[in-house]
Amino acid sequence: MKCDKCGGKAVFHMRHHKLALCQADYLAWLPQQVERAIEKYKMFSHQDRLLVAVSGGKDSLSLWDILHKLGYAVDGLYISLGIDGGVNYSAESRRLSEQFAGSRGLHLHVVDVAAEYGAGIPQIAERAQRGRGKACSVCGLAKRHIMNRVARQGGYQVLATGHNLDDEAAVLFGNTLTWAGSYLLRQGPVLEARDEGLVRKVKPLCRIYEREMAAYAWLGGIEYIYDECPFAVGATSLYYKDLLNQLESERPGAKLNFYLSFLRAKAAGLFSPDADPDRPLLHTCPACGQPTTAPGECTFCRMTSKLQPGET
Ligand code: Q46
Ligand code: ZN
Known about the structure:
Layout: E1 12-14, E2 19-21, H1 23-40, E3 49-54, H2 58-69, E4 73-80, H3 89-104, E5 108-112, H4 113-117, H5 121-128, H6 135-153, E6 158-160, H7 165-177, H8 181-186, E7 190-191, E8 200-202, H9 210-219, H10 236-250, H11 254-267, E9 283-284, E10 291-292, H12 299-304
Parallel strand pairs: 3-4, 3-6, 4-5, 6-8
Antiparallel strand pairs: 1-2, 7-8, 9-10
């Protein structure tokens, strides 16, 4: 197969775009697609300081690589969750994130949850929920809290995450199955900042297939952690991704169409933000100063207040 741009040997074929590209053209093409999404959804400008949350995986490290290549001022944030799972997931993902930053002379903030708050995510989850093992909900809460804190303290205007099209389509699919109105309202490439102290959040990879991100990392020589977090096993989102992949294999482009049609419907007023009965009023947590949905200490502070930093 030939590259549609230069006629050389194509190494990657995208059925949904009816496009085959060689290595050099693919590595140039993908950042352009990301730049288009940044502009289309008015995510940020070259004047903004960006913080990208990296996990050591292909999406977030490639996003950092792309934003840096596009000339944005972008630092990284790695949150060490204290997750072991046989492969020592946290240690390896941290090593790869630090290696990536070091090799490009980029600045990486590291927050070690166990060192700073007294226990890693699995232990916090166990204590908070008496062994019911909802590590992911505790983890999600902790990551949102820490990302927002570091972004505010560091004076970053924008927080970027590496969610790709497959992630977004799976979330959208789940929310659609239950018509989860207020989640649908908040889902999108940009979550605006709020005066109460929430930093603007963006997802520059929201139109890029997971497969395209894997190809970018691979062809671009980005070393990343292949293993999934051990807590991801059996997650409903993986089941939804499987279903959407079946759909995609029969109808190339179906996933992208599903997500983009949703964004268009929303832009056309299908959902009105004013109609959201659950839009939370935000208060300020007296302990950490971050926004919270209920008066008094925020969930994160309550969850971590009895822990001793350094204890595991
Ligand atoms: S890191 Fe955390 Fe994920 Fe692991 S514990 Fe669950 S939420 S699966 S993105
Ligand atoms: Zn080419």
